[in-house]
């Protein structure tokens, strides 16, 4: 286990402005330069130490051990539409040229199913041949999820429509279901095996690319590798992981287009794909919360050392 002092000496903290997504308009991250290149640690600010420490394991793996060997040099990605009014959808999907799959955020607090139906319908109007996924982030009851399945039209899958695995099973007869939080926030990530149709795996929340690929094998499900709103640095680990899959469904890794400013030259989606290339950051927008991040790093290193 690397010491706090060693990691801190290699770290830079940044704060990047972005369009409103997941309720935030700025993304704070710690970038760590290791012998294998740059890595990212960016647990959301509200996360407690045990969860943030899992995210740190990912950064340490990437910085000190490297990423998996890719099986392809490009990764197909999906478009992502936040919970915006239908009138704003066209400007959003324009950020994802050539994609054949679109994920639409639904079940936003303060919005209605009618808002979701309008948003999805607008995506269908603009991209009639696209596969559509919706992501409810556990926002529906079983009854609400079933009603949504009946009103939203054909879906590739509903991502985490409800809180529990038992509830996900009840929704499956009405639409294919993907598990996200029921994997990455569970003590047993394999509890969903045979109970859902797809798995959503994210490098930082799963503790690193190696564990993502292991859990994929153990689950025996089709896996969408997705982002946790990483900067360009963290996105490289995600892309390399998706590129190491035997079968690679459209990955949820196009969210770099949501940043107004990134730590390096932005990756461009071309024909619905992103090139798998490492990033050396050249832009370090200062973070007013820097002291918090170093205190958090110390807490997480101490936590991991106590568990080793």
Automatic annotation (TrEMBL):
<dbReference type="Pfam" id="PF18374">
    <property type="entry name" value="Enolase_like_N"/>
</dbReference>
<dbReference type="GO" id="GO:0046872">
    <property type="term" value="F:metal ion binding"/>
</dbReference>
<dbReference type="Pfam" id="PF13378">
    <property type="entry name" value="MR_MLE_C"/>
</dbReference>
<dbReference type="GO" id="GO:0009234">
    <property type="term" value="P:menaquinone biosynthetic process"/>
</dbReference>
<feature type="domain" description="Mandelate racemase/muconate lactonizing enzyme C-terminal">
    <location>
        <begin position="85"/>
        <end position="178"/>
    </location>
</feature>
<dbReference type="InterPro" id="IPR013342">
    <property type="entry name" value="Mandelate_racemase_C"/>
</dbReference>
<dbReference type="InterPro" id="IPR036849">
    <property type="entry name" value="Enolase-like_C_sf"/>
</dbReference>
<protein>
    <recommendedName>
        <fullName>Mandelate racemase/muconate lactonizing enzyme C-terminal domain-containing protein</fullName>
    </recommendedName>
</protein>
<keyword id="KW-0479">Metal-binding</keyword>
<keyword id="KW-0474">Menaquinone biosynthesis</keyword>
<dbReference type="InterPro" id="IPR029065">
    <property type="entry name" value="Enolase_C-like"/>
</dbReference>
């Amino acid at each position: 286990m690397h010491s706090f002092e060693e990691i801190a000496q290699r770290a830079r903290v940044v704060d990047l402005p972005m369009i409103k997504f997941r309720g935030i308009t700025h993304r704070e991250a710690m970038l760590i330069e290791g012998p294998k290149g740059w890595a990212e640690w960016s647990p959301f600010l509200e996360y407690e130490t045990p969860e943030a420490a899992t995210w740190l394991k990912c950064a340490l793996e990437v910085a000190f051990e490297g990423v998996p060997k890719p099986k392809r040099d490009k990764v197909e990605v999906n478009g992502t539409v936040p919970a915006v009014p239908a009138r704003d959808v066209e400007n959003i999907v324009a950020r994802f040229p050539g994609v054949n799959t679109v994920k639409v955020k639904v079940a936003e607090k303060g919005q209605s199913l009618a808002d979701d139906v309008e948003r999805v319908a607008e995506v269908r109007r603009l991209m009639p041949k696209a596969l559509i996924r919706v992501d409810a982030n556990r926002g529906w009851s079983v009854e609400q999820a079933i009603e949504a399945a009946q009103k939203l039209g054909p879906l590739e899958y509903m991502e985490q429509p409800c809180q529990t695995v038992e509830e996900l099973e009840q929704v499956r007869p009405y639409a294919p279901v993907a598990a996200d939080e029921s994997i990455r926030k569970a003590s047993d990530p394999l509890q969903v095996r045979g109970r859902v149709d797809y798995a959503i795996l994210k490098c930082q929340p799963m503790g690193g690319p190696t564990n993502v690929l292991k859990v994929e094998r153990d689950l025996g499900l089709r896996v969408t590798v997705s982002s946790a709103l990483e900067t360009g640095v963290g996105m490289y680990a995600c892309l390399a992981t998706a590129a190491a899959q035997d079968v690679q469904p459209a990955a949820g890794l196009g969210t770099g287009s949501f940043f107004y400013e990134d730590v390096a030259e932005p990756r461009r989606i071309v024909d619905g794909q992103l090139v798998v290339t490492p990033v050396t950051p050249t832009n370090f927008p200062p973070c007013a919360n820097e002291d918090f991040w170093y205190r958090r790093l110390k807490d997480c290193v101490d936590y991991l050392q106590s568990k080793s």
